[in-house]
Design brief:
By secondary structure, the protein is mainly β. The protein is built from no helices and eleven strands.
C-alpha cells in the first residue's frame, strides 16, 4: 500500500521561505508523476506543481512560477517543494500526490495516491 508522508509545513511571515518534503513508501509502481496540491479553507484542492518521475520535467501553476521549485530524489523516493517569497494567499494545507499513469491536466482527480497534508500558514 502506497504511503505518502509530507513534512515541513509551518508558520512563516510573508516573504519568507519553507521547504516541504514528501517521502513515498510501499510503492509497487514507478510513478508517472508526483505533484503538490493545496487546499485553502472552503476552497477546492488546487494544483501547485508537478514533476515527472523518469525525466524530471516540471510543471507549475502560474501563481507560483518563479517562487516555488519542485524537485525529486529518486533514490530516496522523495519529492520536495522549495517555496520562496511566500504570500498570504499561499496559506493552505499542502498535499503530496502520486500517479502511476500519464496525466494531462494535473487536476486532483487525476491522482490516485495522497498524503495526509501539511499546513502552511503565511502571516503578514
Amino acid at each position: 500500500q502506497v504511503q505518502l508522508v509530507e513534512s515541513g509545513g509551518g508558520l512563516v511571515q510573508a516573504g519568507g521561505s519553507l521547504t516541504l518534503s514528501c517521502v513515498a513508501s510501499g510503492l509497487s509502481f514507478t510513478p508517472y508523476a508526483m505533484a503538490w496540491f493545496r487546499q485553502a479553507d472552503g476552497k477546492e484542492r488546487d494544483f501547485v506543481a508537478a514533476i515527472t518521475w523518469l525525466d524530471g520535467t516540471t510543471y507549475y501553476t502560474d501563481s507560483v512560477k518563479g517562487r516555488f521549485t519542485i524537485s525529486r530524489d529518486s533514490a530516496k523516493n522523495a519529492m520536495y517543494l522549495q517555496m520562496n517569497d511566500l504570500k498570504i494567499e499561499d496559506t493552505a494545507v499542502y498535499y503530496c500526490a502520486a500517479e502511476e499513469f500519464p496525466v494531462r491536466n494535473f487536476h486532483y482527480t487525476d491522482f490516485g495516491s495522497w498524503g495526509q497534508g501539511t499546513q502552511v500558514t503565511v502571516s503578514s
